[in-house]
Amino acid sequence: MLKFMFGAAQPQGLGVTAGKLKRVPPSPNCVSSQADPSDVTHYVEGIKYTQASAKDALTHMKKAIGDDAELVKDAEDESYLHYEYTTPLMGFVDDLEIYADDSTKTLHVRSASRTGYSDMGKNRARVEDLRTKLSK
């Protein structure tokens, strides 16, 4: 099967800095639980967890993601994950970041397309799908 590759290089500034994931860009192809809640284009609610620790919550998240994406970074402090999702035919790459805030028992998420302007709701749908899987 013919496969195109449109995946751009990994963006600068991914990760957690002072408890925050990277800010959302102006384009509508990114959602984040740390965006301003009044920003209906970019804001998505964080995912609450009941596991005993951030490590346990992230282990649960890893199981929910399964083989759907490639794990790029599993932070040593056990509070951050970075995954890459690649579309089958065109090879577009989206980055999913998860930061477990144990003080609020919240998995903060940021899902963003590396290229293009619109993602036709794919990043929001990805986060909501994970929320559904984790609630089961």
Summarize the structure.
By secondary structure, the chain is an alpha+beta fold. The protein has two helices and six strands, in the order E-E-H-E-E-E-E-H.
Helix-strand layout with pairing:
Layout: E1 30-32, E2 47-48, H1 54-65, E3 70-74, E4 80-86, E5 93-101, E6 106-113, H2 122-135
Antiparallel strand pairs: 1-6, 2-6, 3-4, 4-5, 5-6
Helix content: 10-25%
Give the terminus-to-terminus CA distance.
Answer: 35 Å
Which spans of ≥5 residues are poorly predicted at pLDDT below 50? Answer: none
Element-by-element helix/strand order: EEHEEEEH
Pfam family, one: DUF1499
Organism: Sphaeroforma arctica JP610
Protein name: DUF1499 domain-containing protein
Descriptive overview:
With 136 residues, the chain is of the alpha+beta class. It has a domain at 47-135: 2-Layer Sandwich (TATA-Binding Protein), CATH 3.30.310.80. 19% of the residues lie in helices and 25% in strands. The chain contains 2 helices and 6 strands; from the N terminus they run E-E-H-E-E-E-E-H. It has helices at 54-65, 122-135; strands spanning 30-32, 47-48, 70-74, 80-86, 93-101, 106-113. Strands 1, 2, 3, 4, 5 and 6 form a 6-stranded antiparallel beta sheet that branches. The chain is globular. Residues 110-136 are annotated as: Disordered. Residues 121-136 have a biased composition (Basic and acidic residues). This is DUF1499 domain-containing protein.
